[in-house]
Design brief:
alpha+beta; tt1808, chain A; 20% helix; 3 helices
Length: 176
Amino acid sequence: MKALLDKKVYTYSDVNSLPDGNYEIIDEEMVPMTPAGFRHGNLEGVFYEILRKHLGAEGYVAVGEVGVVIRKKPFRLRAADVVYISKKTSPKKPVGMLEIPPDLVVEIISEDETVRKINDKVQDYLSIGVKRVVCVNPFTETVTVHCHGRSDIGYYDFDEKFELIDKVFIKLRELC
């Protein structure tokens, strides 16, 4: 019974003083995340390089579990693998947890993530206005592309070319 009483509740007022670590806040509760493996990190780097090369002058790119505020009450904070924000969306370079929807979120699926967890994350991003969510599954070597306001989903394998964002087309097999 004591463990339930000691459970820390995180609210939006904690957004600038959250502890270090690898986690998300789901409905005011900290949910730990397993550290990523090498391939996961390598894919983050691939997307960072592509976005910086093609859109670096037009926006900002960040990787490594970037905090994205989904909802203030109950507090929900997602950790995105890769985000891109255009200068149209944010003229100034963001700092801290993102409280504006990125133009693009790339999620690289980890071994311990379920379909439900990924779907919930995608829905959270789309619900705040993220224009495009790209999910990369390194285990099945597939990519799904979800666009805000559209019900259709693009499905690709690593050998197929797809639009990452704004006329930037990639074929993952050639990059990783």
